[in-house]
Amino acid sequence: MKKLVINLLLAFFLVLSISCKKVLEDHPLNVTKESDIWDQNDATGTNAQAWVIKIYSQLPNGFIRLNGMELDCAAGDGVPSNRGNAVWNVINGGYNSVNTFDDNWTNSYSIIRRANIFLNNYKRVPWSDPTLPKWLAAEVRTLRAYSYYEMIRRYGGVPLLGEKVYTPDDPALLQLKRSSFADCVDYIVSELDAVKDQLRPDASLASRGNGNGVAEGTDNDAGRMRPTIAMAIKAKVLLLAASPLFNPSVTPSLDFTGYPSFDANRWKAAADAMKAIMNLNMFALEPNRYILNTTHVNKEFVFMRYAASYQTAWGNQVSPVGYTVGNVASGGIVSPTQELVDAFPMANGKAISDPSSGYNAANPYANRDPRLSQTVFYNGATWLRRSVQTYEGGLDKPNNSNIAGGVQTQTGYYQKKFLAQDDNNTAFTPTMYHPSGLSTFCLIRYADILLNYAEAQNEFAGPDASVYAAVNAIRQRAGLNPFAAPAGLSKEQMRDLIRNECRLEFAFEERRFYDIRRWKIAKEVYGTGSLHGVNIVRNADGSLTYTPITVATPFFNANNMYLLPIANTEILANPNIVQNPNY
Amino acid sequence: MIKDYILDKKSLALGFVFLFLNAYGFAAGRISQNHNVTEKVFLDSLKGTVVDNNGKPLKNVKISNTSSGVTIFSSINGYFALPGKIGDKLKFEHPDFYILEKIYTGDKRSLWVQLAGRYLPSKDIVGIDANDSLAVDRASVEVLHARQLKENLLQSVASVNTNQLTTTPASQFLQALPGRIAGLNIGFTSGGPGLDGNGLNYNVRSALGNNIILIDGVQRPYISIDPDQIESVSVYKDALATVMFGMRSSNGIIAITTKKGDKGAPRISFSAQGGIERPIVLPKSLDAATYAMLYNEAKQNDAPAGVTLTPSYSAADIALYQNQTDPFRHPNVDWYNTVLRKQSYINRYNFNVQGSGKGFRYFVDLDNLRETGLFNTNDSLNSYNTNAQLDRYIVRSNLGVDLTKTTVMQLNLFGRIAKNNQPGGTTATVFSSLAATPNNAYPIFNPNGTLGGTSTYGQNANLYGQILQRGYQFQDARDVSVDLQLTQRLDAFLPGLYAKIQGSYNNSTLYKTDRSKNFASFQLNPNNSYTAVGTITEQGTVGTPGVRSRVIYTEADLGYEHSFEKHNLSALVLRNEQSTMQFDTGTLPEIYTDYAARFQYNYDQKYLFEAAGSYAGYNWFAPANRWAPYWALGMGWNIHHEEFIKRNLKWVSNFKIRGTYGLTGQANAGYYTYIQTYWTPATNTNNGDGYYFGNTGVGVTRSTGENSLANPDLAAEKAKKTNIALDLGFWNNKLTLTAEYFNNRFYDLVGAVGSRTNILGAAYPNKNLYIYNYKGSDISLTYQDNISNFNFFVSGNLSLVQSKVIYMDEIARNYDYQRQTGKPVGILYGYTAMGLFQSLAEINDPATAVLAATPKSSLRPGDIRYMDRNGDGIINELDKGPIGSEKPTVYYGATIGFNFKGFDFSALLQGVMNRQTALGGPTAQYGDFYNGFGNGGTANAFEFNLGRWTPATAATASQPRLWLGANANNQEVSSYWLQNTSFVRLKNVEIGYTIPAYLTKKIGVASIRLFSNGLNLFTWSPLSKFRKDVDPESLNPTYPMLKVFNFGINAKF
Question: What is the predicted ipTM?
Answer without folding.
Answer: 0.92
